[in-house]
Amino acid sequence: MPMAKKKNRTRNLLIFVAIAVVLLVALGFVGQRIFGGPSAERVEIVTAELRTVTQTVTASGRVQPEVEIVISPDVSGEVVQLPVVEGQQVRRGELLARIKPDYYEAQVEQAEAQLSQAKANLSQREASLLLQEQILDRQRQLYEAQVIPLDEYEQSETQHKIAKTDLDAATFNVESSEARLREVEEQLSKTALYAPMSGTVSQLDIELGERVTGNELQAGTTVMKVARLDQMELEVEVSENDVVNVALGDTASIEVDAYPERFFKGIVTEIANSARLQGSTFQEQVTNFPVKIRILDPHNPASQAPGVLNETPAVQDYPSFRPGMSGTVDIFTNTVTEVVAVPIEAVTVRDFKTINRARARRAASSGSDSTAADNSEVRSASSSDEEDLQRMVFVVNDEMKAVATAVETGISDDQFIEIKSGLEEGQRVVNGPYSAVSRELGDGDLVEERGIRGSR
Fold this sequence. Notes:
Strand order of the largest sheet: 2-11-15-13-12-16
Radius of gyration: 46 Å
Helix content: 25-40%
CATH class of the largest domain: Mainly Beta
Number of domains: 4
Strand content: 25-35%
């Protein structure tokens, strides 16, 4: 029994000591928080370095041929011959389709007959004029010999003029018939559709036996499309904020969804002057500008001009781009070298009027140059309430304090931003976390380094 009581006392003593230690630790922590000054903010710190920064504009679009011609007829009728299929390579001048020519052949025959009739009528009028000239000469001689009266001579002159007018009309009728013949012959020739260039039938929209419509004044039925598939491009839509940075000749990196993890070289060849508006209302409208980027890497070897297909080495891993494939492009719009740069996350925007007021209050509370501090605060209070928003970084000084520093920025890439002024190489700046840089961290706050990002 005495042994049991002794063990209970020992256990109670240990519990009491443990509770006392915990209380002392807690009291020490609280005392440090209350009397030991402000705690340091744990932040990520990076060093400003000289880098090469390349500004890029990223956009998405679809692959398409640089040159694609829509084939549509100028005459109407039934398709009676269709010697090509979609994907077939054709040469310039090769027959693509033929429309039933019977109606147009009949028109040619009718025009030829009308021309022959007009020429016969012209010959008749020429003979009639010759006869009237002979009669007029004879009547003139008789009138001068005072054999016939004046009215008979004048009647002969009138008949001569009528014969001459009839000849002119017959001449015009021949010219009209010839023009009509040329017109129907041209219509007959248009019943055959030929390839306007060497390329590939990229799209075939009709079948043999279908009827197509067309005339010379407006586009008819789309029969097919012929394209140069060995000269592909990517058409993307660039926002109005980014298009001002894009110029003809800018290089680009292209990634096509069908070939992931592969990048192809490109160059900007065309920038639209007019925007494409998307959205039904003004609030929903999105303003984009079409931009075309030529793909420079070899591609679509099977779509080269006919005759060189077998000359392409089979070992070459050339991509086969098809019209309509999706892709993304990074356009390199500007590059600067050996400039001071920091990560984009290190730059934020703050109101420097608020920062200056806080600095003035700190100077006044510290008792150093209180008069100047009070005057500065008065000037700040009397100034307008308009915010003085500036881009800035928090520079970490030797005392591990974050100093709000205004900077002038330049171009940026997807990671770093150029600092034109306000920061020098080798200075350390706060890079994160985002909440601290954008809102929580204040000018003059103590910071504690929790990690340095790796150098380039």
